[in-house]
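Could you help me review a protein record that somebody else here produced? Do not assume that whoever made the record got everything right. The record follows directly below this note.
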Amino acid sequence: MSSDRWPRPTGLPRLPRTVELADNVLNTLAARWPLTVIRGPRGYGKTSALAAWLSSIEVPARTIYLPLTSASNRSQGFWEELHDGLIRSGLLPQTDTDSEKAVGDLLASPEPLTLILDNFHEAGIDNGAAEIDERLMSLLQQNKDLFVVTAGRMLRSLEAVGSHSVETAVIGPKELRLTGPMVHRLAGRLGVELSLTGAEELADELGGWPSAIRAGLFGSAGHDESGSVNRGLIDDYIATTVREARFENVRLFVLRTAIPDEFDVATARAIDSDEAASLIRLVHSAGLLSERFTADGPVYVYPPAVRRALRRLVRESYPEIERGVHLALMRRWHDRDRPALTLLHAAHAGEWQTALGIVDSEWRRMLIEDPLVLTDAARLFPTSMATESPRLTVALEHLAFVGTMSSASKYGWSGVESPRLNTEVAAHRADVREQGDDELVVLTQWGITSMMMGNLETSLYAFSQARACAMREGEDGPSVHVGTAGLALVHALMGEPDAALQWLADPALEHRLEDAEEHRSEDVVRLVAATARALAHVDRADPEAARSVAEIPASTHRDELWALGVFVRALHVSSTGTVDDLAREANQLRGALRHLRRGSLVEAVLTLMLIKVLVLAERTPEAREIVDRWEPRGFTWIARAILHGAEGAHPAAAEAAARVLQLNDQGGRYALPAAVLLATAHHGSGRHADARDAFRTAVQLCRDTGRRTPFSLMPRHIFDALASEHGSAAGLWPYETEDATPSPPPVTAAITTLTAKEVEILQALPDHAGPVGIAHALGLSTNTVKTHLRAVYRKLGVTSREEALAVSGQVPARD
């Protein structure tokens, strides 16, 4: 070694062959920033990074490496330990001078000096950390030839404030952690057969924690099994690290917060202490927590394998902590009105009576809001207790297969119940058995609740299981009838009238519907079945539709089930009624909406029907007022498509209709109307190829389900034009009869001066008394229609509608 080269600092550990460092770590150290901070938890390779750096360069003159010990835990001890290290290096003489003053004078002297302080978290940890950081920062500001490198486990003011005073580089956990390719290279050097994918998974599971990863790979070295990683050694390493944590409050915080899947500051306070926020910052800055931002604020989570090891440590060594955390979480979720999560933590804590009480009181709500959490909680119950509870039996045997089928809840519909249906089922079963709350009751009530909320896929499953359960038990009464009628109504609500009528063809149910003497109007099963039958007939535009609608039983209960009857009547009138009929139906819908729970799906369905009826009644300003204050979500974009079409805003109508078609989970009832409206909008915009494609989709949906009524949303002349290209599609026009009046014939050749748009308006004139009706029918604005009508009258040499019709040969002129 040449005489002018500064010797390699003493005290550095031997550089292990398993060191894997990102290039930017060594590059940052080599850049010689005035202050370089290396920060990471135990086992993140801080000392290895220093050793790798110093072994790869020609060490600068006057470079000192000093690993601090517990002797530095107080301010005076720090300066004494630093003083002794500088004496050993030959930079300070052995004197009785005050340690802090002697060190300060040396560091302030204008000579190059690189001071590397390892284990810097020891400096003043018991007393004086802030003063030490402030003094070092002051010396860095005084001496441009002083370079300080610190390596420690904690975020300190030297790092937080230093960057505002001197040029600072920080090498944090993110830079020190191992990536998938680094793990793959390390495994290769250790002789562990691990694919790149397996290496990336291991890095993700451990958050890139270098020593924990090395522990698993070391334990696997020499094994024949390809891709094996000794996860037991990983768990042991993490457990040992946590057990040896110096501060009890940090150790307990880490153990407690590893129990929930994730946590925010409020949750951490609930399960730990009021100092949770500062502890989160400490553990997060150490790199053991990842942070995810949500609408409610940041959420924190441990890497999966780290959390698994921590939970294992809790179960084996601190069982009282786990129960305490679950009790705290049970109280927290109860205060936040989340019954399913309250139940889950009550079960984890073994609070069985509390848990059973939640199951009894919050069952239907949990089914709607958190079915998967409910299933997880049910699995925690003792087997003997679960088998005695019909609700827990349903949760274990059915919910796990259904999961979150809900499509309505995705858009925030409020859950509702039908007390009449629930009461009828429970009362009948109570007559059959002494216990009125059995599995069949639970399944049926689940189907009812899901249907009322709009979770139709879940409702189909629940009703079919309830019906099958009743038939297995030999039932031949209301229990079977409710299931059958429920299935029919759900299919009808999904826009599948053919399927609904197949269920209604059940002989026993047909007999119940026809036996009006025995079953009065308040018979709920009869009301459900009659509503389903009427809706199916209206959707299919069957000749029996008017009679079926009239036969929906009257009801004194103003609930969601009754409101569905109002909806069916309005749907029928919207396809067959006059303007006066539509006006009366709008009043009925407004009245029904006053009785419904705000935010429910049934309220949304009736509001959409009200908008449609108002537009058809040529009361678009009223419809516009409702739409403007109604936030669109899910299928309710149909309302905007209808209104935009009536106002002649074809691009906006097409966009709104396309949104509905993009919602695959909302497709049932509203896909066909959306396709019809999309075809109409494209036709109005002159995009005839797109109109034909949308019409083709509508025709296919019609043939798949049996529905025809939605075609009435399209002006008849547009339907005729598009249907002429689709063969038998012409027969899909709703409520067509043998003596129906055909579409108006084209204007005769004598009127050759009219433009194509003026001809279109003249053809619509027989069906509409004024520009408002024509505007709606053709998807134009009223002012546009007025302009074209004036041009038509001028070119035909007439002054009135009657004269224009007479000249065009469409109807005789009146005297």
Summary: The chain has five domains: 23-176, 180-335, 363-571, 595-716, 756-808. The first strand starts at residue 35 and ends at 39. The CA atoms of residues 191 and 222 lie 7 Å apart. The chain has a mean pLDDT of 83.
